[in-house]
Specification:
The chain is mainly α. The chain has one domain. Helices cover about 70% and strands about 0% of the residues. It is built from 20 helices and no strands. Helix 6 packs parallel to helix 19, helix 9 runs antiparallel to helix 18 and helix 9 runs parallel beside helix 19. The longest helix is centred in the C-terminal third of the chain and has 33 residues. Pfam families: Wzy_C. It is found in: Membrane. It comes from Pyxidicoccus parkwayensis. GO terms for molecular function: ligase activity. Its main location: membrane.
Length: about 425
């Protein structure tokens, strides 16, 4: 792999790549299984490019891809290492172990993006899909969901009917097409970055207007989902976008609008109650308990961990002493602590290297004027804000949403959304 111009690709393969990207974009708002199918197909197509020696990557993207593959390799073998060292008693559940695929999804998107990306079609699908999801969220926020979801969605009806308001004025947690409010709200942070980048950086007024409506829909969706960390991340990402992309009056107007959002949160009794519980959750509550158990696992197995996907089993083994329950034992409620507990210091270093290399590559493209890279960089910031109190890879719908945005941000030619260049072959935009 080098940075030389790519070898011409069969048009059928190019159409397959475009189809995978569109399917992935649909999955951002529709269903987790759609995202998983699209990500799996992207990994397969990336493998075909490598096998045919037709993959050409810039050095910084290649470094990110190599780090991603190295992390996946360690995740794959870490359960076996844990069994050999006595850190684990059995192999992790298949569904949890299969999440190693999510780790390399962003790299796969960057790889197949070298073939071509249907930028405008993807933007239309994401914008239209999120506006529909926002409308559904408004309904869910005010109407008690009237039917039991299909079993394959693995949703608790009690959670769908959880009332964050009062009996006289009920407010139910909105989850859009995902139904699950946290998957819905956290996934919104992934798509919020690109929407903010277009809003603040596009030279086409119509695109800015559409992006502004989408940003508003995402903020309302997060607000209606009563997702505290997601709302905080959304506000931080929005402030960073204002500082990066706009100046003068536009920046002041943006800050005023964000202040209005904060004010709306402050006058909402339901949100005041949610924020009041947040401090107790972190200090002396469920989140502190989950993190304390994570530190126990780290101290017991600092180098190699308990094996990828084994956090729950290892945490439950401490239940007689810690009181951890089945629900809280899934992870340590922090990306870095969970990665250290499961994959040890080796996995922690590889994870840090992967994200550092990703940020480095995105920053270079942002400085060159790529709106896709700017959006991906904003999403990267939001991801790490959320990761302080959530282990986002546990929900594939959330992790794969970020992976798509990051991969697209690394694709060559992504700056066309700024300069409005003509559309190239197979729906991909290329600079003239």
């Amino acid at each position: 792999m080098d940075s030389a111009p790519p070898t011409p690709v069969d048009p059928r393969f190019r159409r397959a790549v475009a189809g995978v990207f569109v399917l992935w974009a649909v999955g951002l708002v529709l269903a987790e299984v759609v995202l998983q199918v699209a990500a799996g197909a992207a990994v397969l197509l990336a493998g075909i490019l490598v096998a045919r020696k037709r993959l050409r990557l810039a050095p910084d993207v290649r470094a990110y891809v190599v780090a991603s593959v190295a992390l996946v390799a360690w995740q794959l073998v870490s359960p076996a290492v844990a069994l050999l060292t006595g850190a684990a008693q059995k192999w992790p559940r298949g569904s949890r172990y299969g999440q190693v695929l999510d780790t390399v999804a962003g790299a796969a998107a960057a790889c197949i993006g070298t073939v071509g990306v249907p930028w405008l079609l993807l933007a239309a699908v994401v914008a239209g899909g999120w506006l529909l999801a926002a409308a559904l969220g408004l309904f869910q926020n005010r109407v008690k969901w009237p039917w039991t979801p299909p079993a394959f969605l693995k949703l608790s009806v009690d959670r769908l009917h959880e009332n964050f308001g009062t009996d006289e004025s009920p407010r139910y947690a909105a989850g859009g097409f995902f139904f699950h409010r946290l998957r819905f709200a956290h996934g919104a942070i992934a798509a919020l970055g690109p929407a903010l980048a277009v809003l603040g950086g596009s030279e086409v007024a119509r695109r800015r207007a559409v992006a502004g409506v989408v940003v508003l829909g995402m903020l309302v969706s997060i607000y209606n989902a009563f997702a505290r960390a997601a709302l905080g991340a959304a506000l931080i990402v929005s402030v960073v976008a204002l500082l990066l992309l706009v100046q003068g009056r536009a920046r002041r107007v943006g800050l005023v609008l964000l202040a209005a959002v904060v004010l709306a949160v402050g006058v909402s009794p339901a949100w005041r109650a949610r924020l009041g519980k947040a401090v107790g959750n972190i200090y002396g509550g469920e989140r502190e308990l989950a993190m304390s158990v994570g530190w126990i696992l780290v101290r017991e197995h600092p180098l190699t961990g308990v094996g990828f996907g084994n956090h729950k089993a290892a945490a439950m083994a401490t239940a007689p002493e810690t009181g951890i329950n089945d629900f809280l034992a899934t992870d340590s409620h922090n990306l870095w602590l969970t990665a250290w507990a499961e994959t040890g210091l080796v996995g922690l270093v590889l994870l840090a290297a992967m994200h550092a290399l990703l940020a480095k590559a995105l920053i270079r493209r942002h400085r060159e004027g790529s709106l896709a890279a700017t959006g991906a960089l904003l999403s990267w910031v939001g991801f790490h804000v959320l990761s302080l109190v959530h282990y986002l890879p546990f929900h594939p719908s959330v992790h794969l949403s970020f992976a798509l945005v990051w991969g697209l941000g690394l694709c060559e030619g992504s700056g066309v959304l700024r300069d409005g260049a003509a559309e190239g072959p197979a729906g991909s935009n290329v600079k003239s």
